[in-house]
Design brief:
260 residues, alpha/beta, 2-enoyl-CoA Hydratase, Chain A, domain 1, 2 domains, 6-stranded mixed sheet, 4-stranded mixed sheet, 17% strand
Amino acid sequence: MSYNNILSKVTNSINTIIINRPNKLNALNKETIKELHKAFKAAEEDSEVKVIIVTGSGEKAFVAGADISEFADFDVKEGKKLSAKGHDILFDFVENLSKPVIAAVNGFALGGGLELAMACHFRVASDNAKMGLPEVSLGVIPGYGGTQRLPNLVGKGRAMEMIMTAGMIDANQALTYGLVNHVTTQEELIPLCTKLATKITNNSSVAISAAIRAINANYTDGINGFDIEIKEFGNCFGTEDFVEGTTAFLEKRKANFPGK
């Protein structure tokens, strides 16, 4: 599949997706959002892929926000449609993928860029990364999940401060806040993400998908996460991966999960 604004490659069951608009600091425009949807959907449907890493091209930016020129003249109806469609085809879509998505934050992650990183299952940052939601400085609020996911990750007070001041935090502060899991050098960012992804590929993809659903359920209104955990836990007992995993453990050998 060919793209204009992103690159996608699969190596050793890891699909690396690179947002490739360096002259725009990888800003998200409509076309890029659509292409990301296609790439994530293709990865979800590819039986070879077990983990996805998403990052930005170059060393300056993961994604430095949205392409403001595309919506500066929108009215209320168009603004609501823009947000709703973005949630549907990219941000909520990524969060609910059955395969783990790691955000390799390699520089600025602002506005829609930070919102994309937060939609991923976890984040690793380079030590030059800067993160923030500057939307209120433009007279608008984060519209791709920022007001919801940021408080879940860093707490209500810190999220309020970050959104209200429209300021940026650096990688080490993001680590302290719990916004990212690890901070490393620019050179070691992709190698570290690949190392983490490889560890994930050694485990049951079926169980990992169940874990994603159970964890996400706790953050879904009207859903009892404990009930979903019980359901998903029970379902695991009917899988080939469970048989292989428990048999390998008892036989004191490494499991070779069929992914079924």
